[in-house]
Amino acid sequence: MASATRPRAADTRLDLVDVSWAGFKRMLKVRGDRSSPRIWYLDGSLTLVSPSLPHELHSRRLGRFVSEVVTELAIPCLAVGATTLSRADLKVAVEGDEVFYLANAERIRGKTELDLNVDPPPDLAIEVVITHGAKKAMTIYRRLGVPELWVCTPKRLRFYRLGADGTYAETPRSLAFPFLSAEEVFSWVSQPHASLESEWTLRLRAWVRDELAPRARAGGRPDGD
Question: Which Pfam families match (predicted)?
Fold first, then answer.
């Protein structure tokens, strides 16, 4: 007898068209302080995404990875999570999986609200892709001027850098953390979830302290790069 195949966990996604900016703002108000669904807006197209468990597990690990690196290396950082990033004049809005201010952290220290008409865009945004593509999110981040984007699927992590021509190009090393490669980060994020996250974090913390930090302080790059 053939064994049943367990369906893969999927994000829940709803796309709406011909939504005005006022309609987008009303949707935010209706959603309120709840963390889900996350909302994207691009040129009148509104997307609502409720992340699956695999999505959230990958997202949290990526956020924890960045947190451990900036803490050990004393890199200025402000994590803004899934804060709504929007520009009415550009007709875009996005709530990322993990978003960080690094080079511009001091410029928004102490702020309780972001106004991207005045404030700089985040330095790094992370998007996890389980069952939908990243094209829409990349277009939004590109218009907002986010200089670095990480896109993570169940099989691979890609680093993208915003070029002078205003488009993203894949790059083997991080812009914010030039001592890191996408493959190296993914090797941690993709580890099986059989162990507790606290155990995984302790292993990561030891690796960052004992292996990554000395390399970074010496100006080294990932092996083979």
Answer: Uma2
Please state the length of the chain. Answer: 225
Q: Which residues pair with 170 in a beta bridge?
A: 160
| Angle subtended at Cα 22 by Cα 16 and Cα 27, rounded to the nearest 5 degrees | 55
Domains and CATH numbers, the chain: 52-83+92-216 (3.90.1570.10)
- Predicted TM-score (pTM) of the model is 0.90
Neighbours of 177 (CB within 10 A): 21
Three-state secondary-structure class, residue 162: strand
Side chain identity at residue 179, one-letter code: F
Q: How far is the CA of 75 from the CAs of 31, 109, 119, 220, in angstroms?
A: 34, 14, 20, 17
β-bridge partners, 157 = 152
Per-residue confidence at 170, pLDDT binned at 50, 70, 90?
Answer: very high
Specify whether the CB–CB gap between 133 and 42 falls below 8 A. Answer: no
Cα gap 155→139, rounded to integer Å: 22
| Buried b or exposed e, range 4-34, using 16+ CB within 10 angstroms | eeeeeeebebeeeeebeeeebeebeeebeee
pLDDT tops 80 at residue 4: no
